[in-house]
Amino acid sequence: MACDAFDLSLYLILDPDLCRDHSMLETTMAAIRGGATLVQLRHKTASTDEFIALGRELMQAMAGTGVPLIINDNIDAAIALDAHGLHIGQDDIPAAKAREKLGAGKILGLSIESEAAAGNLDPEIVDYVGIGPVFATSTKPDHKPAIGFDGLARLSALCPMPGVAIGGIKGPHAMDVFKSGAQGLAVVSAICGQPDPELATCELAKTISHAQQQISAGKLA
């Protein structure tokens, strides 16, 4: 999959703790049916072998859907799986090194939360950025201070590549996210742990589509 062949608008980040009633595989496939455009496998406590086993199961199930699978942090698992891409944070492997190891044909995402980080971005290396946290969130207790929509707009304007808003993002935030200049919503609990993940995703997708249409039509209220 080429680096430009992805859609950030409805970006699902899997959480193993929230996916108790519906497994990560079940949640992923339900979300894809509902309209998720990209899926990230995040599992902070899994070993690389466990990560690869989970990723392989997801890759096989997602084959033919057109939805990319992004691996969080674990570049060894991403390479072993031949996953569509990798997402890293500021404290993980340097972006240039990650790109060198991944190769040019993979998607590389990077988390940013400050003007300094935005100023160091190289669009020849990084394909998209995760901007946030917009709000504090219990799904990532070690996150940096929340930046709000003002911070999202400020950082989006500084980034030379597409950005996705992350951190406590829910459907009702869609209009504010797009008004801030981001290209999508990265969600966790809005889908993971919901009684009906497919329905939850479908409702999110409709809300996102409506917000995009309003933005395109210049109706920003």
TrEMBL record:
The keyword Magnesium applies. It comes from the Bacteria. Mg(2+) binds at D73, D92. SUPFAM superfamilies: Thiamin phosphate synthase. The keyword RNA-binding does not apply. Its EC number is 2.5.1.3. Its cofactor is Mg(2+). Pathway: Cofactor biosynthesis; thiamine diphosphate biosynthesis; thiamine phosphate from 4-amino-2-methyl-5-diphosphomethylpyrimidine and 4-methyl-5-(2-phosphoethyl)-thiazole: step 1/1. Pfam families: TMP-TENI. Keywords: Magnesium, Metal-binding, Thiamine biosynthesis, Transferase. Condenses 4-methyl-5-(beta-hydroxyethyl)thiazole monophosphate (THZ-P) and 2-methyl-4-amino-5-hydroxymethyl pyrimidine pyrophosphate (HMP-PP) to form thiamine monophosphate (TMP). HAMAP family: TMP_synthase. Belongs to the thiamine-phosphate synthase family. This is Thiamine-phosphate synthase. The gene is thiE.
